[in-house]
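Narrative of activities, Objective 1.

The group set out to show that a structural description can be obtained from nothing but a protein's sequence at a throughput compatible with the screening campaign. Below is one input-output pair from the validation batch, recorded exactly as produced.
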Amino acid sequence: MPVPKNINYRQARVEEDSLIAEHFYYMWQDNQVAPENIISEWLNVTVEFINRARQELSYQAFVAELSGKVIASAGCQLFAGLYPHILTNNYRKYGYIWGVYVEPPHRNQGIAKQLMGMSINHLKAIGCTRTILHASPSGKPVYSSLGFSSTNEMRLDLI
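Output recorded for this entry:
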């Protein structure tokens, strides 16, 4: 589907961190997480996370604006890792994309793909060798169309 021409894509500004956090919250709601399963301090926790990631992990967010209103966002950063870093950066320097969100009336127009492209380009620019993300069911087709593939990650639910 063609991307609407009247949408402005750009890097997010620091003063938009709260808006990025709101989109992250709505993303969880869209994925059927009940409000009682989201901590009441979600806004502060997310903004603090973004601040730390910006300082330590080359975090960058991107937004889509329509008539001066942000309607979509995506964030990316260096992947902090799950275990000790013993591999060289030229072999394994992963980037992580998270919080991809498009407001419901603007979905299925290619906006998420555009934001993903900007995120991928940022991660390439900081020397990442691979990009990873965790996809929602509705996001999987978007990411697959961009060349993302399933991995060997496995999961065991304990509750």
